[in-house]
Every structure is written in structure tokens, then in C-alpha cells.
Amino acid sequence: MAEVERWFVDIGLEVRVDAVGSRVGRLAGERPEVVMSGSHVDSVSSGGAYDGALGVIMAGCAVGWLAATRGRPLRTLEVFANCEEESSRFACNFWGSRAMAGLIEPEEPEGLADGEGVSIADAMRICGLDPAGLADARRTDLAAYVEPHIEQGPVLEETGDLIGVVDRVVGVRGLRVSLTGVGGHAGTLAMAARRDALAGAAEIVLGVERLARGRGAPTVATVGQIEVRPGGFNQVSGLARLTIDFRHPEEEVLAELDGELRGLVASVAAARVLEVEVSQGTMQAAIRFDGRVCTAIEQACRDAGVAWRRMPSLAGHDAQVIGRLCPAAMLFVPSKGGVSHRPDEETQLPHIVSGIEVLARTLFRLAYQPLP
Ligand code: GLV
Ligand code: MN
Ligand code: MN
């Protein structure tokens, strides 16, 4: 974040740290309402360098170029660098954008802890932030938000388009499941007497996959984390915790899936005589983006002479939270091989340059010109 701050200063922006630690670079306009662009700087563990960070860099390049060549805008321009979107340390995703939208629950700062038991509230204090003040991150001055991001899928590469104009994002939901059985000796505890929590988790993993495959695309469901106690090769597991992430563009389908997944967990637990607790994880509603912001991106693509297509996002993004506060949309650049959330994710430099040009032209329309 220190590097982000230095860079914002170098490109002529005033830097602010908001109440939850996001960095904001500001180019003051004649009017106070803000056109914002950016993304997140955190990453999944064992992730790549592009998911999130490239969006912040693209926004900084576009706004820095506008500052240098067009001077003071009509509407204020801001570059947003969200401190935490991915939930890689705390199960709190979209942290910076949820704070802006006033969507952080009061119990979250003290209630959510990392793997070492440090709460977000304590982590904030260590960074010099006051958890009691997080309501100050709320924004009521946003006129528009444009989030540039890597596609994270194969569509643009397959079609040969350079820009994805993203007009909607899927809903993302999560469940946290805890199964308690009886631990014991791997040699002496007879198979007939076992209440093995890990075996129950394994059955749930396969059931989740079967359920999503059975519904077909665009339904996806993933068990990405399992924690087993005590975890010895010669010990039967007394405890297993797992997460289920599931996504679909329609809220009604998400609600049905929620019921089916909870039913699956309950029936596996009952058949194996395991105690079970299910709690709600991520709950981000699907969103349709603002038609005017999508059109501004499309006009910018025409002006830049690049091929574009409208498309949905199958990954979650800050824009689906900020889009509840103000008109918003997203701009995708191609991902090599469609790969993401892996160290080898990549976007080629000429594609990044085209994306920055389209973003700069979009922000020029939104911040320098009277709105239609
Ligand atoms: C974020 O990368 C998400 O889609 O979960
Ligand atoms: Mn991601
Ligand atoms: Mn991302």
C-alpha cells in the first residue's frame, strides 16, 4: 500500500486512507461529485499478480494521463485501491467496498478472525485504524464507478475481442459447514463404530459437485477449503470444517441452491450421525449494471477502434457492491488461457494498453463532459 500511495502522489493525485484502510487517489474537479475507478490490491493466496492489482494500475494510468493532458475535470476523479476483496486472510470479502456502501455488519470487526485468531478489529488497530470509526468510510458523493479488471475466463481470447463491456455480475453465496463426529485410533476404532467427520465432508464435496453439474451451466459450486482435526495420518477425524461457494446470475436459483445444499449437508450428517452447524458465508447479490455507464464504455471502444463485446462476469467484484451506491459497470481485458486465481494468470501488455486507452476515454466522457 505504501507503494500505491507513492505512485498516486507521483501521478499528481492527493492521497487519502479511508476508515478501513483502502487508498484513494483524488484529482479534484470543479464539482464535488466523484467519478471513481479502481479495484482491489489484495490477492488470493497462491494467486497471480493481475486479479485486482491490474485494475488499480489501469485506473491510475488513465487518471494520471487525463490529469497530465486534460487538466482539471468537471467532476472529481478518484482512483480506488481496496485493501481487501478476496477474503484470503479474513472471511470478510469486499471489505473496502462494503465499507463504502455501509454494508459491514456491526459484529464483523471483532467477530471475524484469521487463522492465528487475530480479529479484523485487532488487525486494524495494528495498522493505526480505529474499528469504531468504520462508518466514516461510507460514501454518498459517488456519481459513477468504472472497474477495469482481467476477465479471468476464456471468452475474449476465444472471440478475439479486446474489451469486455460487463453489464452484469453473478450472485455469490457461501456456506460454512462444521461437522463433529468422534475421533479415535485409526487401527483400533472399528469401521462399524465410526463417526468420521472427514468422511462426511468428503461425501458433501462430491454431493456439491454432483448438484452443480446436474443443474448445468451457468451454475457453479465449489468446496475450496477443508480443515480437519486432529489431522494425523493414524487418527480418525473428530472435526471437519468446510466452505461451499456457489454462484448463479438469478437470485431465485441461488435461493433454490441454498436449500438444496443445506439439505445435502443435513442428510449426510444424519446418515453418518455427525453433529452439524451451517452458517452463512458470503452473500453478494447479482447485479445488472447501469446502461449509461455501459454505453460510455462502448462509445470509448468505438473511439479507440477496438473490438468489444457485452458480457457477464462470472467472478465477484467490488463493482457489484459499489453498483448499489451509484451507476457502475466494468471493463474486462483478456486473460491469457482464461486462467485466474493461479500464479500463472497473465494479460499481455498490448491488451493492457488498449484497456487503459478505453478506460481513459470512458472517464473523459464521465468526468470531463456534461452528462447527457
Ligand atoms: C473473487 O475473486 C471472487 O469471484 O470470489
Ligand atoms: Mn479474485
Ligand atoms: Mn478481482
Q: Structural class of the helix and strand makeup?
A: alpha+beta
Number of strands: 16
Which band does the percent of strand residues land in? 25-35%
Overall shape: it is: globular
Q: How would you state the average pLDDT, rounded?
A: 96
The largest β sheet comes out as:
9 strands, mixed
Distance between the termini: 37 Å
Radius of gyration: 22 Å
Bound molecules: glyoxylic acid, manganese (II) ion
Give the helix proportion (percent range): 25-40%
- The ordered string of helix (H) and strand (E) elements is HEEEHEHHHEHEEEHEEEEHEEHEHEH
Number of helices: 11
Poorly predicted regions are: none
Give the structure's gist in a few sentences:
By secondary structure, the chain is α+β, with helices and mostly antiparallel strands. It is built from 11 helices and 16 strands. One manganese (II) ion binds next to loops.
Short descriptors:
five-stranded antiparallel beta sheet; 372 residues; binds manganese (II) ion; alpha+beta; 11 helices; single chain; 26% strand; binds glyoxylic acid; nine-stranded mixed beta sheet
